[in-house]
Amino acid sequence: MAPTVEISIPTTSLSNTSPPYTIYHITLRLPLRSFTVPKRYSDFSTFHSTLISQTDAAPPVSLPSKTWFSKTVSNERLREDRRRGLEQYLRAINESEDGRWRTSPAWRAFLNLPTAVASTGNGSTNTSNRLHAAITDPASTNAPITDPTLWLDYYRDMKNHLHEARLQLSRRDQETTPQKQHESSAHAKGSLVRAGAMIATLEEGLKNLGRGDKGSESQASSSLGGGEIRRRKDLLINARKEKDGLEGLLHAMATKSRLDHTVASIQEKEALMNAGNTGDGSGRRSTARAGRVLGKETERTRELDNEGVLQLQRQMMKSQDDNLDELRKVILRQKELGTQINEELEVQNELLRMADEEADILKSKIDIGRKRIGKIS
Question: Where are the domains of the chain?
Answer without folding.
Answer: 1-112, 114-276
